[in-house]
Amino acid sequence: MSALTIDRAKRRVSIDARNPAFFQEPLATYAEIHAHCPAFFWEERQQWYFAGYDQVNALLRDRRFGRQILHVATREELGLPTPKPHLKDFDALEEYSLLELEPPAHTRLRTLVNRAFVSRQIEQLRPDIEQLSHALIDGFENDGEVELLKSYAETIPVTIIARMLGIPAEAAPRLLDWSHRMVRMYVFNPSYETELDANQASADFAVYLGGMIAEKRRNPGDDLLTHMITSEKDGEQLSDAELASTTALLLNAGHEATVHQIGNAVRTILQSGEKASDLFSSEAATGSTIEECLRFAAPLHIFQRYALSDIELDDGITLRKGDKIGLLLGAANVDPTKFSDPNVFRPNRDEGANVSFGAGLHFCIGAPLARLELNLSLPILFQRLPNMRLKSEPAVKDAFHFHGLERLDLVW
Question: Going from the N-terminus, what domains does the chain have, and what CATH number goes with each?
Answer without folding.
Answer: 4-350+362-411 (1.10.630.10)
